Amino acid sequence: MNNLIKFINERNNRERRLILALVVLLFLLIVGGFTNGIISSTTMASKRYQIAKNNYVYVKKSALMIINSSRSEMSKKDLTSIEVELIESSKINNIDYKYSSLDEQGLMIVFSADDLLQAGQFLKESSQITNSNLGIILLENQDNQRIFKATFKLEN
Q1: N or C: more exposed end of the chain, with fewer CB within 10 A?
Q2: Selection from 144, 82, 149 nearest residue 111 by Cα
Q3: 78-106 as b/e, with b when 16 or more CB fall inside 10 Å?
Q4: Cβ pair 112, 72 in contact under 8 A
């Protein structure tokens, strides 16, 4: 280090300024190289993120399309096979199944139940059987019986 200081001190003013300029220029080149590396890696990470995000959106849309198509296939299941499953479920849940009807609002299931918990369980199972969401439920009292009229919205 002493030799370097001695070498610089032996130079005239113009040569010292040139050496200082050279050192500053080398420093700026080194800092610029590091900065360029950081910027390029950040740009690549941003591009990879964007690609991964686009892939995620594509997969999510595809999955939703598959789910919706399977729902619409299940909703096209004929009323007779749905009724068979509903009758089996009503027997398991000790529910008095009355009838089902299909109209533009959806599938209406009419049944009576003494216990609200049993009715709730039957409605949950009915939702799974029909593969649809419960839309409207009406509760009526007829001849000392609780009559439930549940409408399930079928997917198109």
Answers
A1: N
A2: 149
A3: eeeebbeebeebbeebebebeebeeeeeb
A4: no
Residue 134: closest CA among 105, 112, 114: 105
What does each C-alpha distance from 81 to 2, 28, 48, 127, 129 come to in angstroms? Answer: 98, 79, 49, 14, 10
What pTM value is reported for the model? 0.48
Task: Name, in order, each residue with C-beta under 8 angstroms of 134's C-beta and a sequence gap of 6 or more.
Answer: 123, 126, 127, 150, 151, 152, 153
Assigned token pair, 50? 């964007």
**CA gap 146, 139 in Å, rounded:** 7
Q: What token pair was written down for 107?
A: 């599938």
Task: Calculate mean pLDDT across residues 32-49.
Answer: 92
